[in-house]
Specification:
Elements: H1 13-22, H2 30-33, H3 36-50, H4 57-62, H5 72-77, H6 84-94, H7 108-114, H8 127-138, H9 148-153, E1 172-173, E2 176-177, E3 187-194, E4 207-214, E5 224-230, H10 239-244, E6 279-281, H11 295-301, E7 306-310, H12 327-341, E8 346-347, E9 354-356, E10 361-370, H13 372-381, E11 388-394, H14 401-404, E12 405-406, E13 409-410, H15 421-428, H16 435-456, H17 465-468, E14 482-488, H18 497-506, E15 513-518, H19 533-544, H20 552-555, E16 559-562, E17 570-573, E18 580-585, E19 592-593, E20 601-605, H21 610-618, H22 620-629, E21 635-639, E22 647-651, E23 654-661, E24 667-678, E25 686-694, E26 701-706, E27 714-725, E28 744-749, E29 753-757, E30 762-768, E31 783-800
Helix pairs in contact: 1-8, 3-8, 15-16, 21-22
Length: about 800
């Protein structure tokens, strides 16, 4: 096991002692009048006395070992001095590591170093050393995936802070607010925010429902920041309806003619009425008991952040239509931020015209969430809306074309062949959950969704006006909020190109940005054993939302990447792309074609026998296995020589080819593959302790997870892929003519990399046509011919690794 911590803020000795007094572990003068040993006993006793435990402090100390043979109380009564080994033997037990299971009692420091935990080492311990070490220990993560202070908090250690006057909150420790807000007294209320649009054509400005969870302390004068999650899924989904509408993908590409234009989607009214105001209040009239939540938000709620959820237009209890990523959907979520900042009105219900303000909010807002949720965080940030100080966008789309299309092709999100913008709109159109409301709006929605389906254009796959309206990259320059990006390098749903585009743009903007890349698929990372993500967020938001000068920007790494080869290893870097650009010539030995010695052209055919084709359509994983094993029948495969030492591949690979198809249409696809028998990390985290991560005292919990090495070695791993329609050789919006047998030059990007290629492994490139997991599956009898004369693969950043580290 290895634990990585990046959220511990450097502090001075006076700061540490002051903060220990703040949480009632130190009293004035303790350090001066006590020995190190006496102070340790005092700190341990006060810690236990604050916890709601059935054990007295005396019993508790008798159950902990100071030496392999002496309990803590016995050692305290002895003449043995405090040593570094004694302190960290005790510390491991406090962090829930078990003797003789997780560490050897005789050598606790070996385990401490192996875990890479922070430590203080002294030959002769003073009371000042003890205070510093205990402070650091409280900020150290343990076996349960929490820092010791949060572990103690879940046991009731900070329950006394619930009674503090509101003006004394929040309490900060190591630059982060503590869980000092009583979840049993959270206020849950509903408001309806008025937008500047009428997307359901009823002549009235759309109202958007927002659900709010805020501390009781706001009733006593405390003004708190808001953490807002924009989730179109929040009010329910039409899963069965969406499944029925999935598009057929088992049909061939067609030849495209230049000038083919898809119809535009429907325009919404610009003139409409607004609700008449009949009074105002500070008290909401509607509440709720449960709402689908994000566990990171649950963690933040007990630390004084108000948590806000809204599903936006076209969802249950809100007005409007579901528009799937459009500017109107963005504006409906922007309206929530504006209300929180005090710039927009809301009502206590949908009909009575009683306005209500977010009087309890300090005007500072952050947005959180993964996938569609993170996408809308990014979208709202591009508007530059006042009050939005930070976003944490996880697995977020930055261009919807890059989600449902690629290179002039219809391209599925991983695992969802046949889904498209219209099916996602159907899935999230939760106005269906109010039957009478749905009956009234259904004719309007049916007309709208039919036009949307035409405008998105599955026939050509071209970039058009529909996708341009859903391209947030055009508006990146408008971002004023600080941005924390989180993305999986193995995410085939929202592909890494989405976050790479945002990351690259932010480097030229005057805003602070952080990037975290993990080895997972489309997942959250806030409950991992090996990384202090929640604490990192807490530190960062304390700076952005509470305006605390806590050096969060300098403390947290600019780029943080989970290593794909070494388990539980997270490395900090200054940039995504760094190192030497490396160009592989497919013919000169740098990337030697397998089973090809001297050849100017290679050929393959995209057709399969009926039984094989149907089997692969039903089980794309079988197609992937066959592709790796193929030797020239429906692909071309190239490999490097085995790497002599570990390499780090960084950035966006680009492939340049000259290709011909035997028909007047075709596509080319490519995969980069790490070949080599090895135990690789799982792309889905393994649950270590279900429900075992408490998020506060008598509050919600999460499942503790971690990426683990697979039990069996595997011979390869796909690390990047890319696709291009041969009739979109210049860009995705431009149609190029293609004649049967015509050799054409095509260049396209594969998905961005940050990959550790281990010594002895080979980098492979596979060129093929139909991708059964992602593209249309036409099974046409098409011969493809590739000229190798100018075939190039370029990786922009390659550096040598030394003991798992690389150039920053």
């Amino acid at each position: 096991m290895k634990i990585n911590q990046f959220s511990i803020r450097p502090t001075s000795t006076p700061q540490r002692q002051q903060e220990l007094q703040r949480i009632q572990l130190l009293q004035s003068g303790d350090v001066d009048r006590m020995s190190a040993k006496e102070l340790l006993k005092t700190l341990l006793t006060r810690t236990q006395d604050h916890c709601a435990s059935p054990l007295t402090s005396a019993e508790w100390l008798h159950d902990l070992l100071a030496t392999p043979d002496l309990a803590v109380d016995e050692w305290l009564a002895s003449d043995q001095p405090l040593t570094t080994a004694i302190f960290y033997r005790l510390a491991l037990q406090l962090l829930e590591f078990e003797p003789d299971v997780d560490f050897r009692l005789e050598d606790p420091l070996a385990t401490w170093h192996k875990l890479t935990l922070p430590m203080e080492d002294h030959e002769a311990w003073t009371s000042t050393d003890m205070a510093n070490a205990y402070y650091l220990l409280l900020n150290t993560r343990g076996k349960g995936g929490q820092i010791l202070l949060d572990q103690l908090t879940a046991q009731g250690f900070l329950a006394w802070t619930y009674q503090l006057p509101a003006k004394q909150k929040p309490l900060f420790f190591n630059g982060k607010p503590l869980a000092s807000f009583d979840p049993a007294k959270f206020i849950c209320e509903v408001v309806y925010i008025e937008t500047d649009m009428d997307t359901d054509f009823d002549g009235q400005a759309d109202l958007v429902k927002a659900e709010i969870i805020r501390p009781q302390d706001t009733e006593d004068g405390l003004r708190v920041p808001a953490v807002f999650t924009a989730s179109p899924y929040n009010q329910g989904t039409n899963d069965e309806w969406g499944d029925k509408a999935t598009h057929n993908v088992n049909h061939p590409l067609t030849h495209k003619e230049a000038g083919q234009e898809a119809p535009h989607e429907m325009a919404f009214p610009t003139e409409f009425k607004r609700q008449a105001v009949n009074g105002s209040t500070q008290k909401a009239t509607q509440t709720f008991s449960e709402t689908p939540g994000y566990t990171l938000n649950n963690y933040l709620a007990t630390r004084g952040y108000a948590i806000v959820y809204a599903a936006g237009i076209g969802t249950k209890d809100s007005d409007g239509l579901q528009t799937c990523g459009s500017p109107e959907q963005t504006d409906s979520m922007k309206a929530v931020v504006e209300w929180l900042h005090g710039d927009r009105r809301a009502f206590t219900d949908r009909t009575h015209g009683i306005t209500i303000t977010a009087w309890w909010c300090n005007g500072n807002v952050a947005m959180t969430g993964r996938s569609y949720l993170g996408t809308l965080s990014t979208a709202v940030a591009t508007t530059g809306v006042a009050g939005l100080k930070a976003i944490i966008s996880e697995a977020a789309i930055s261009s919807w074309y890059d989600y449902y299309r690629e290179g002039g092709l219809v391209r599925a999100a991983g695992g969802f062949q046949g889904e498209d913008a219209d099916t996602l709109a159907d899935e999230t159109f939760s106005r269906t959950k109010r039957p009478a409301d749905f009956r009234r709006i259904k004719p309007t929605y049916d007309k709208y969704i039919d036009r949307l389906a035409q405008a998105m254009d599955r026939t050509t796959g071209n970039y058009n006006a529909f996708w341009d309206r859903r391209n947030y990259r055009k508006d990146f320059a408008g971002i004023k909020a600080a941005v924390m990006m989180v993305h999986g390098l193995n995410d085939t749903n929202v592909k890494p190109s989405n976050v790479k585009a945002l990351y690259d743009a932010l480097q030229d903007l005057p805003v602070e940005s952080k990037l975290i890349l993990h080895q997972g698929q489309h997942i959250y990372i806030n409950a991992f054993q090996s990384l202090d993500f929640s604490e990192m967020v807490n530190l960062w938001l304390a700076n952005k939302l509470w305006d605390l000068d806590n050096q969060a920007d300098s403390t947290l790494p600019h780029v943080l990447v989970q290593d794909n080869h070494l388990p539980e290893t997270w490395n900090a870097y200054d940039h995504w792309t760094a190192g030497k650009q490396l160009t592989f010539h497919l013919t000169d030995g740098d990337l030697t074609p397998e089973n090809v010695h001297v050849a100017e052209q290679l050929t393959f055919n995209d057709h399969q026998e009926k039984d094989t084709y149907q089997d692969w359509c039903q089980h794309p994983a079988k197609w992937q296995t066959a592709l790796i094993a193929d030797r020239g029948q429906f692909s071309c495969q190239f490999k490097t020589a085995p790497a002599k030492q570990d390499l780090l591949l960084r950035g966006t690979p680009r492939l340049q080819l000259t290709v011909a198809a035997s028909l007047d249409h075709g596509l080319v696809s490519a995969e980069l593959v790490d070949f080599g028998d090895d135990k690789r990390l799982t792309t889905s985290p393994v649950i270590i302790n279900r429900g075992g991560l408490p998020l506060g005292y008598h509050w919600k919990a999460d499942d503790l997870r971690e990426f683990k090495l697979q039990k069996q070695a595997s011979p390869y791993k796909v690390i990047a892929s890319g696709h291009r329609n041969l009739q979109n050789r210049h860009d995705s919006a431009t149609v190029d003519e293609l004649a049967p047998g015509q050799l054409v030059d095509v260049a396209f990007d594969l998905q961005p990399l940050f990959h550790h290629l281990a010594a002895g492994h080979q980098l492979g490139l596979i060129i093929y046509a139909s991708d059964y997991a992602f593209t249309l599956r036409g099974n046409e009898d098409v011969d493809y011919r590739i000229s190798l004369e100018n075939a190039l693969l370029t990786i922009p950043g390659v550096s040598y690794l030394n003991s798992g580290r690389a150039l920053r």
